Amino acid sequence: GLHSASTTASLKTETEVDTSENEVVAPDFTNRNPRNLEQLALARKERGWKTTWPKREFWHRLRLERTQHYVEAFVERCNGDVVVSASTREWAIKRHLYSPKGVTACKNLGRVMAQRCLEAGINFVNFKAVIPWEYRCDSIQEFEKAMEEGGVVLREPRRIYK
Amino acid sequence: MAVALLNGALRGARGGRAFGTAAALCKRAAPLGPMPNEDIDVSNLEKLEKYRVFTRYWRLAEKESRKRHWWRTYWQHTNPPPEPKTDISLPRAKLLGAKEIKERKKILRENRQNAEMERAARLRTVLIPLDEVRAEWEKTSGPFHKQRVAEHCGIFRDLFKGATFTPWVALRVEYSQENEDLVPVYYGNMVTPSEASSPPAVSYEADKGSLWTLLLTNLDGHLRDTDSEYLHWLVTNIPGSDIKSGKEICHYLPPFPAMGTGYHRFVFLLFKQDCPIDFSEDVRPTPCHSLKMRTFSTFDFYRKHEDAMTPAGLAFFQCQWDSSVTWVFHQLLNMREPVFEFVRPPVYHPPQVKFPRQQPLRYLDRYRDTEEPTYGIY
């Protein structure tokens, strides 16, 4: 919740009949926006799950799924709901690619995904849910580089505790 | 007599060991569903198929964790089953016919036979044209993705109390700045109030002779009542995509999210009208700077006119306090600027116990009425 702290003086002295009631403001303000707290870095991250992998200490997580036939990228919340997704199964991306799997597919998927994330207002994503020995491979490195160049930061800011 | 014998046995009389009967209280019965891994035959481990890679096991485990189980789970506890939602969107355009699918397969086959594309893919030099991809995406899976993001920002829950719609019409909203820059509004962008101080350029595909309504609301900014919104702009009976020739019911007011309140959602809604609608009840006076007149509820507004219009387009942005907001409060709204501060919810402590186990001395500080903690770090 928010509490009214102070108000600044106004410059006009004349009061119009129209705006005379504007001054009445409730002392408590509730912001219904579910994305407000996480954008202000004040929301809680799920800090349990330390004995399992992957951990759920994030607001948004970037997950790359590479199968034998296509590559998919999802940005999801810790309860599993997908917010933004991009896949080489979509016609818009598939028609420009020679093969929907492989390093070039991952790279271009990264570029498309970065554009969609920025449009949706997701600037910070957690990219820890990658298997360590697979992280070194070319396709995931190209995907990560494409996301960084697209403007998405792959590190979530620390929550503000005080 | 039997009771005396039982009590004696419980106490351990006559040299026998004392035992508790709590185990007898819970009845042991068969499980209410199949146990996990029941289908794997572990009697003959040699014959079992062993995956030689970790990834295949992990993918199975992820798929298994996403399945619904018959026992109570944490996911069930945090995600209650959603109520069925009414769909208020325009009727869907025709799905892909056999001819279109054939054309797509032909394009893919040509791609695969193209030697240049194969060489570029092998040498990793391919860079697909992002603008064309975006244009195609807006026609095919764009509406569903926008609906999903809007669902996560709680727009349908706050605007229409749960009823959802798929924005089939691609709405393009751009704020133009003094230095010839264009700040576009997509689904969930960050736009500052100084960038949004003048009415934006709105464009969308429209048939000749069709009528539209454009609406800009602030879902979170109401200073008195949490459940109502502020109307910033309302233009009705727009012929085609020409906003200037529509009837401006409420003139444009720049966004004014108060300081300390965080990010507010501002939603552009485009409604398609079947016939010219009379909005005389909603007409606001031309310089409308009274917050009471601007208080608005999209749910009631849509309920009043739902027979003649359907939501067709959606675009929204997030907005935070900025110095131009002070100017709006002082000059346009003629009021003192409210400033808020974030108040954290109080820290939870479980009810106090007379003999706390393994708690430090500061346990007593947590339940003291006065403010001075006397035990410090102990």
CATH T-level fold name of one domain in chain A: Nucleotidyltransferase, domain 5
Continuous helix count of chain B = 13
Radius of gyration of chain B, whole Å: 32 Å
Q: Structural class of the secondary structure composition of chain A?
A: alpha+beta
CATH C-level class of one domain in chain A is: Alpha Beta
Tally of DSSP helical segments of chain A? 5
Give the biggest beta sheet of chain A. Answer: 3 strands, antiparallel
What is the fold's blueprint, element by element?
The complex is a heterodimer of chains A (162) and B (378).
Chain A: E1 2-7, E2 28-29, H1 36-39, E3 61-66, E4 71-76, E5 82-87, H2 91-94, H3 103-119, H4 132-135, H5 138-150
Antiparallel strand pairs in A: 1-2, 3-4, 4-5
Helix pairs in contact in A: 3-5
Chain B: H1 2-11, H2 22-25, H3 54-66, H4 74-78, H5 98-113, H6 115-122, H7 130-139, H8 142-152, H9 155-159, E1 172-176, E2 182-185, E3 187-190, E4 201-203, E5 211-218, E6 229-239, E7 247-250, E8 264-273, H10 291-294, E9 295-296, H11 298-305, E10 309-319, H12 323-332, E11 338-342, H13 363-366
Overview of the molecule:
- The complex is a heterodimer of chains A (162) and B (378).
- Chain A is of the alpha+beta class.
- Chain A has a domain at 57-150: Nucleotidyltransferase, domain 5.
- Chain A has helices spanning 36-39, 91-94, 103-119, 132-135, 138-150, and strands spanning 2-7, 28-29, 61-66, 71-76, 82-87.
- In chain A, α3 (103-119) packs parallel to α5 (138-150).
- Chain A is globular and about 65 Å long.
- The model of chain A is unreliable at 4-15 (pLDDT under 50).
- With 378 residues, chain B is of the alpha+beta class.
- In chain B, 29% of the residues lie in helices and 18% in strands.
- Chain B has a domain at 159-332: PEBP-like (Phosphatidylethanolamine-binding Protein).
- In chain B, the strands form two sheets. In chain B, strands 3, 5, 6, 7, 8, 9 and 10 form a seven-stranded mixed beta sheet that branches. Chain B has a three-stranded antiparallel beta sheet with strand order 2-1-4, with no helix packed on it.
- Chain A: It is found in: Mitochondrion.
- Chain A: Residues 1-30 are annotated as: Disordered.
- Chain A: InterPro entries: Ribosomal_L18, Ribosomal_uL18_bac/plant/anim, Ribosomal_uS11_sf.
- Chain A: Belongs to the universal ribosomal protein uL18 family.
